[in-house]
Give the backbone structure.
Amino acid sequence: MIRRIVATALAVTTTVGLTACGSNSSSEGSTDAVVIGASMMLSGQTNLETIRDGYQWAVDEANAAGGIDVGGAKRKVTLKILDNRGDTNTMVQQVRSLALQDKAAALLGSCCQQNIDMSAQADSLKTPLVMGALPIELRPDGKGYVWDSFQSLVDGAGGFFQVAATAGTNKKILLITNNDSQGKSTADLYKGLAGKAGFTVAVSTDAPAGTTDYSDAIGKAKAAGAEVVIASMTPPDCFAMWKQMKALAYTPKLAIGLQCAQTPGWASLGAVGAGTLVQMSWIRTSGLPKADEVVSKYSAKYPNDNDLSSVALGYHEATILLAAITKAGSTDHEKVNAAIGQTDLSSALGKVSFAGGKSATPSFVGQWNADGTITQVWPKQGASALKSLSGLA
Amino acid sequence: MSADVLVAGLLSGGLYALIGLGISLVFGVLKVMNLMHGELVLGGAYLAALLVGSAGFDPLVALPFAMLGVALIAYPLQRYLLTGLLRANGSAPMVATFGLSLVAQAALQAAFGTDPRALSAPYAQAGFTVLGVRVQAVYAISFALTVVLCGVTHLVLSRTRAGSAVRAAAADPTTASMLGINVGRVYALTLAGSAALAAAAGVMTGVAQSFTPSAGLPLLLTGFAVMALAGIGSVGGVLLGGITLGLLQSLSTAYFGGGWRNFVVYTVFFLALSFRPTGLFRRVAHA
């Protein structure tokens, strides 16, 4: 009897599993809601609720208009978001579940390293994945199901050197990064571009994440007379270093916090953080489509432009995907994937047109003010004049 | 290598010692690895952040309140949860403190978000020059505070009746209990005292550096390293252990580069443990 029950259960499970695997995507030709899915870090060390809000905004907007047009029929959109708590194994399971059980037409991304990890899953499941929050140079080549619309590291670095050229420094750089792969690739990029921009890397060093004593690097930078600081580190590391630079009377004329100043928490540094430059993919003065709406809808919840840029990013990703489903006229994975590749639209982060699965969005350079706000200083359109690095003066 | 680097390492060692003092105290008395020590440190930082943000306190003024607040949280945890587990199963409290650390981390994330924070104070980024050596004021303050708290802890343990009870409970809880010492209360007071010391370390960490809800693990590892170098139950040794760790970090960075810092520090750490399993400074100073 027990054997029979087990055998029946196995048969049912196998049948359901095969059915799920065999089914390409959700409800082809039906009027059911179109499901799009995302596995994101919503608790744990990182909380991507800003990007989630952007996803939800785009979906709510589409549903308020009666849904999206899929093959001549209006269909509502269901956004299914799962919290993977930053755990890769959980993310993998959730992505499989979204694609196979929920029959999501396509997936939206998470952030950073998790987007890289998710890319392999999307490729293996042959399910389109639209993501941002990963510089386009870092997107894995994969098998053609991953679409990254975000800023380019090279463009961002180029923007920084354009700003730095106007800052009246001696063009000697202290370059300090974390000693992980991201830090090393950033160091290589900036070393390469510094020479072309007429700058000299006077001191180059790295440190493991969690370092709190930078007196050695600061001492060498002082001795070398480096007036430009480029730091690519985790936020806590930069916090410690910025305080130490001030206390040890190191007074560079220009400083940028790559990665580390891209957090609203930078404001808690107070006056020390004022004048520090930060790379951004969106800023309220950017003139990008929907910029005013991002501010009016979300600035009460997220006062800082760093957070608002993530909301804009989420909206941007979801808009690309919804437009592609309409263009495909289907929720079939292959058709949606092909349609994403033909995207030609302008959304919250600017124009989108994929080449090799990548579409670079504009880069901006902002400058932190003592009151915790950020002012755009590059590019020229929408920018204010560069101020001095008052926090470290 | 400049004298600035050497002094920075020495003074940052003071903060490391303060982080390690509480964890050493608990292990010395309760024989329990307190895996929520990092979260107790963070508890002090976040309580101080509340007082600094809402009441406009200077972090040093907020420090005693943060110490008291975290101690008041720790006392009932030990009294009504961990001591019972300790009596039932020797390893259960360690597992329980790990669980509590996860609970605390989730609570801090829910209450304060995940963005890093720092405690603002004029001395956070101030410095002064002594004999041509540039000194970061906040680390000088931390070092002085650590010396004071190490001294107070040593005096309490060695010169007071409460300290005698703690030492008796640590040496032989059964006999201590037969002599009329309320061992459960002693244990709870020990964890509360340890939590207060951790909170003090948290406030100074918040001023000198920054903190996030998930920063507990590196703080815990720092505490373990200090305790292992110091030797169990050695208050003076904790100070020396912290200083050794700070100097090791600075010297290894200066001579080998930042990328080798952890390798050098933990190689020395394991060598020290291999040759002196009871700690480098066990014989130097006993509580």
